[in-house]
Amino acid sequence: MVLLDVEADTCSGCGHLLSETLQIDAYEGYDSGPPAVCQACKVLHRRQTDYVDDRDVHALRFTVSRTWEDPLEHSGDHFFGEEARESGAALPAG
User: Fold this and answer.
1) How far is CA 26 from CA 7, 18, 63, 69, 84, in A?
2) Does residue 91 form part of some domain?
3) Considering all CA atoms of the chain, what is the largest pairwise distance in Å, rounded to the nearest integer?
4) What angle do CA 38, 78, 85 make, to 5 degrees?
5) Domain span holding position 67
6) For the segment 40-94, what is each residue's pLDDT rounded down to a tens digit?
7) Among 9, 31, 42, 79, fewest CB within 10 Å belongs to which?
8) Domain identity same for 48 and 26
9) Domain for residue 93, yes or no?
10) How many domains does the chain have?
């Protein structure tokens, strides 16, 4: 029952609690950093756009597989996409 309450109170866009974010005191009380780029989503989207004109596009299923060796070696490295860099977005210090 509690999980249902939390799910009902969670914004589907940002994941924050609506009972908090809809308060008048919350007006302009949030900030957002630059976007992080999920490399798997990026390559998936690019592959899907190759088939946008296929008449059976809705029946196509795509897979994504990792091409690099050990994710633990890179666990502290967060990649922010070229789009964020080119836009002049402030990147985290590090």
Assistant:
1) 20, 10, 40, 44, 27
2) no
3) 50
4) 80
5) 39-86
6) 999 999 999 999 999 999 999 999 999 887 766 655 555 555 555 555 555 544 4
7) 31
8) no
9) no
10) 2
Q: DSSP labels for 38-91?
A: -HHHHHHHHHHHTTTT-TTGGG--------SS-GGGGTT-----HHHHHTTPPP
Residues 37-65: b if buried by 16+ CB within 10 A, e if exposed: eeeeeeeeeeeeeeeeeeeeeeeeeeeee
pTM of the full structure: 0.49
Q: Is residue 9 part of a domain?
A: yes
What one-letter code names the amino acid at 71? Answer: P
Structural tokens at position 86 = 């080119």
Residue listed under structure tokens 């795509």: 62
